[in-house]
């Protein structure tokens, strides 16, 4: 500060727009910030560590006998189902934490910096893929310990894992939107649960669809969660790729295309 | 476009009729400000006067409901991303990341501003050194004192070396020593060519730092000028005398009124007389007259009008509710408590 004179404001060359490259760079830096925060407060990973373990154990042993006859033959059905449910529930936390984060003074500084407006949001969401990865790995591991041997092989399981993480990231934009517009963190939790609970349970995640009444089957079949679960089952259990995979990816892209701009606009308006 | 409005960089801030309402409350009600490049400009006012809201509009954090503002000739609403490249903002509440260390904070802000990894590391080191935070650099901010947090906050605002820096109540809640350090830092900033716009509710702070002051009250600028102009608008300095023997006080008062030809006041404190001093020359005559009359003085002082009085005169009312935080004496006691 002492050695260098500051360049006068009038003499600077400036642009009023941020390039795409800059947006990506800014988002990655913000993701790095998110990772640092996770490293500083590892206790916030409790939910993604405990939930897969407890839920997988609980659901498998409670429903296994009733639905598939025995636990072992239920595993190929339940593991993909519980995986999708767990990871997507985890994405709610993204919205809650974003709300908490935004109440802190540091977001004022982010707003006053000449960075891409989307970066603080995209970065936070990107860092949270770490959480989804933990949940995914733990669910598959729990399944493996209980005797699940996916026929599709490790490669296809990895693709299935990536698919779930990518879809959860897309869906987290919805909760990020709630996070930005909601007044408090706990209300984000509330709204998100109301949306998510019917979506995950009114799907083929836990039980065969043909045991449900017709009107419910109709909903379950259009429920995007069902398509994602089916796509994961196809990949992990038989190593095949079907329509459901495409539908899941297209659905994710649509969610991002709608909710990312909405969220950024709400974020900009909110002060 | 910019040629239409030739601004040779003379004005860092030009604001016209800024208005911002929150519900029914007009927090800022038509504020005009002109800040010359390279100066320290003080916005002075009590809590809730609209200082922070004004700064937030100038710093592109809030969109004005009406009016316009230009930073170095760039409109805050239409060219906000350009404006952001020209400013540094240090908020009232430290805008740094609590859960990270000082170094990590500065590195992240540097990276966001486009510095490379090594540049960011070097810059963070430099700033920490300069603000005396090197030892605490690795500790999480939770353990930082208020003063350290403010210094880190200011350091973060200086990464891009912005030509204009907004400081929102930079010393609120700091102890007197850290406050003085902060003032030195601000003065040094201006020497490197920065322009500083600061808000404060401490009158002595504006007095110490600012070249010009705008006094703001319930969302309006009620007075504007240099510190001396504002003081002059209130009136002259006053002469204060204390006599050794309180028996003499009436005689002393008559002598003062005869020689200075003004009304003198006896203050409640025993033996103290206050009189406006329009003509300093006459004081010599007064002192001689007092000695000839055999009145011995215990104390003599000249009091310049304080900005407290300025504020009182301009607004016609004292500072409401937290009047205590305005007078300098109580500032110190308040700071000590924090």
UniProtKB/TrEMBL annotation, chain A:
It holds the Pfam family ABC2_membrane. Keywords: Cell membrane, Membrane, Transmembrane, Transmembrane helix, Transport. It comes from Cohnella endophytica. This is Transport permease protein. One of its GO terms (molecular function) is ABC-type transporter activity. GO terms for cellular component: ATP-binding cassette (ABC) transporter complex. Its main location: membrane. Signal peptide: none annotated. Coiled coil: none annotated. Belongs to the ABC-2 integral membrane protein family. The chain crosses the membrane at residues 45-67, 73-98, 118-145, 157-178, 190-209, 245-268. It comes from the Bacteria. It is found in: Cell membrane; Membrane. It is a multi-pass membrane protein. Residues 43-270 form the ABC transmembrane type-2 domain.
UniProtKB/TrEMBL annotation, chain B:
Keywords: ATP-binding, Cell membrane, Membrane, Nucleotide-binding, Translocase, Transport. Residues 13-243 form the ABC transporter domain. InterPro entries: AAA+_ATPase, ABC_transporter-like_ATP-bd, ABC_transporter-like_CS, ABC_transporter_ATP-binding, DrrA, DrrA1/2-like_C, P-loop_NTPase. SMART domains: AAA (SM00382). GO terms for molecular function: ATP binding; ATP hydrolysis activity. One of its GO terms (cellular component) is plasma membrane. It is found in: Cell membrane. One of its GO terms (biological process) is doxorubicin transport. Coiled coil: none annotated. Belongs to the ABC transporter superfamily. Drug exporter-1 (DrugE1) (TC 3.A.1.105) family. This is ATP-binding cassette domain-containing protein. It comes from Cohnella endophytica. The lineage of its organism: Bacteria, Bacillati, Bacillota, Bacilli, Bacillales.
């Amino acid at each position: 500060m002492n050695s260098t004179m500051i360049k006068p404001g009038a003499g600077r060359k400036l642009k009023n727009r941020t390039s795409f490259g800059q947006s990506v760079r800014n988002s990655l830096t913000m993701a790095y910030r998110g990772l640092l925060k996770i490293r500083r407060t590892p206790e916030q990973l409790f939910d993604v560590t405990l939930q897969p373990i407890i839920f997988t154990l609980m659901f498998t042993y409670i429903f296994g006998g009733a639905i598939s006859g025995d636990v072992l033959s239920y595993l190929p059905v339940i593991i993909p189902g519980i995986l999708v449910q767990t990871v997507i529930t985890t994405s709610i936390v993204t919205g809650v934490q974003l709300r908490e984060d935004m109440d802190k003074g540091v977001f004022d500084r982010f707003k006053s910096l000449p960075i891409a407006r989307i970066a603080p949001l995209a970065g936070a969401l990107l860092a949270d893929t770490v959480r989804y990865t933990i949940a995914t790995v733990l669910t598959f591991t729990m399944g493996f310990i209980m005797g699940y041997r996916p026929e599709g092989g490790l490669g296809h399981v990895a693709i299935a894992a990536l698919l779930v993480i990518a879809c959860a990231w897309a869906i987290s934009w919805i909760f990020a939107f709630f996070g930005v517009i909601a007044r408090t963190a706990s209300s984000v939790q509330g709204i998100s649960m109301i949306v998510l609970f019917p979506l995950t349970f009114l799907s083929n995640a836990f039980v065969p669809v043909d045991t449900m009444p017709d009107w419910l089957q109709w909903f379950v079949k259009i429920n995007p969660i069902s398509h994602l679960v089916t796509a994961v089952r196809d990949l992990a259990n038989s190593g095949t790729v079907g329509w459901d995979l495409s539908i899941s990816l297209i659905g994710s892209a649509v969610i991002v295309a709608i909710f990312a701009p909405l969220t950024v606009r709400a974020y900009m308006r909110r002060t | 476009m910019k040629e239409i409005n030739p601004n040779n960089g003379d004005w860092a801030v030009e604001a016209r009729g800024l208005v911002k309402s929150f519900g029914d409350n007009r927090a800022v009600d038509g504020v005009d400000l002109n800040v010359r490049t390279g100066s320290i400009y003080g916005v002075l006012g009590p809590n809730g006067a609209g200082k922070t809201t004004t700064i937030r509009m100038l710093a592109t954090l809030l969109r004005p409901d009406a009016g316009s503002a230009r930073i170095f000739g760039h409109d805050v609403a239409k060219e906000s991303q350009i404006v952001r490249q020209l400013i540094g903002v240090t908020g009232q509440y430290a805008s740094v990341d609590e859960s990270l260390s000082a170094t990590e904070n500065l590195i992240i802000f540097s990276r966001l501003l486009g510095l490379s990894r090594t540049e960011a590391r070097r810059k963070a080191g430099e700033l920490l050194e300069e603000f005396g935070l090197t030892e605490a650099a690795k500790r999480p901010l939770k353990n930082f004192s208020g003063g350290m947090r403010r210094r880190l906050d200011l350091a973060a605002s200086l990464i891009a070396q912005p030509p204009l820096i907004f400081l929102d109540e930079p010393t609120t809640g700091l102890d007197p020593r850290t406050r003085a350090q902060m003032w030195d830092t601000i003065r040094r900033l201006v020497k490197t060519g920065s322009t500083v716009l600061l808000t404060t509710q401490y009158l002595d702070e504006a007095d110490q730092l600012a070249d010009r002051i705008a006094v703001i009250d319930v969302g309006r600028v009620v007075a504007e000028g240099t510190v001396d102009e504002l003081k002059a608008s209130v009136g002259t300095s006053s002469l204060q005398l204390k006599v050794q023997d309180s028996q003499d006080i009436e005689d002393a008062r008559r002598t003062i009124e005869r020689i200075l030809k003004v009304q003198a006041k006896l203050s409640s404190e025993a033996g103290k007389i206050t009189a406006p001093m329009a003509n300093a020359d006459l004081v010599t005559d007064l002192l001689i007259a007092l000695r000839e009359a055999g009145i011995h003085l215990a104390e003599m002082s000249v009091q310049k009008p304080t900005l407290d009085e300025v504020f009182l005169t301009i607004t016609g009312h004292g500072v409401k509710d937290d009047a205590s935080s305005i007078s300098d004496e109580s500032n110190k006691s308040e700071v000590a408590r924090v």
